[in-house]
Amino acid sequence: MDDQTLRLMSSLAVTAIRYSRSVSTAPHLDYDPANREAHKSAVIIRPEFQQRLLPFLSAAKSTLKSIPATTFIARQIETTKAVKKAVKLNPKSVLLVTLDSCRYDSFLAAHARRMNAIGPLHRAKAPANFTFGSHAAIFVGFTPGVPEVATPFVNPKFAKIFQMVEGGFAGHGPSFISLEGRNIIDGFRRKGFATFGTGAVAWFNPKSATGAVLSEGFDEFFFPGNMFSLEAQIGWAKLKIQEQEGRPIFLFLNIGETHVPYFFKGAPWDPGYNPCVPFGRNNDSDECRRRQIACIEYVDSHINDLLDLFAGNTVVLCADHGDCWGEDGVWEHGISHPKVFEVPLIFHLGTV
Q1: Beta-carbon neighbour count of residue 1 at 10 Å?
Q2: Global pTM value
Q3: Where are the domains of the chain?
Q4: Average pLDDT over residues 61-76
Q5: What would the mean pLDDT of 215-223 be, rounded to a whole number?
Q6: Which contacts qualify for 277-284: CB closer than 8 Å, 24 or more apart?
Q7: Domain 94-348 -> CATH class
């Protein structure tokens, strides 16, 4: 079996594992720490659960049983290490990730081990209640924050990670990085950074007048055309990174799988049914929660390679806003409700 097929099967296996964790508390994974080196940190899919995973692995039905389970993850790890070795990322490079519509409580409940490894998780407040407003604010330095604490970067009012020169109140402490220009994209370009962005939701569509506002200014911007395209977005981002030879990079990634209807490619539910419709009569808060948690875990399994490339660099990961799931009788976002403003914030600051 060739490497490309193995990588595909590995990706599908991870998706299946993550989803099964979200819907069942029954033990379904084995890992033998005594044989760690041989397994290369792989998760083993027990034979009795391979049949259970087949709906998620339709592309691999004919060969799943013939391949050792450790091969899936081990080969993916080897590929990641090879890519990382080939790419010499400038230590000043910056990664900004937004999980669209992701609630804080969903993120807290999810098995998002890789994203949580970036840094401490903060229960933050978003700067706006919908995608355009929040990203417009984030792009001028107003990242989500915790207003009750006087802690630099956790509370952007006290001190910002990205401070625009002459961009409002300077704060009480020094910013992490000061930028001049129209926004942080322009600011990083003026500092010699290559700037790449990719957004999954329609607010980033460069062909629309409003989408052009958020997507303009990047050296290159990739709009995949639907909200369920994380693999394509990460693949594109890796290519852009590999094209740079030592030049610092500012990379922005907006992820759409966590947005309604809460779906990822291969998910075992119909995206045609949206359990969170404003003023809807067929909404389901439990289904919203189950789906979004599964989507977060899917993201965590697929963003690993990208986070490894930026290990030690500045990484800011947050949601742009959350969603209401029937609290006070309201649903979705674009409304000023506490659950819409409550979002996860994680960051690690590297070299300026």
Answers
A1: 12
A2: 0.78
A3: 3-82, 94-348
A4: 41
A5: 97
A6: 277/331, 277/332, 278/330, 278/331, 278/332, 278/334, 279/331, 280/331, 283/325, 283/326, 283/331
A7: alpha beta
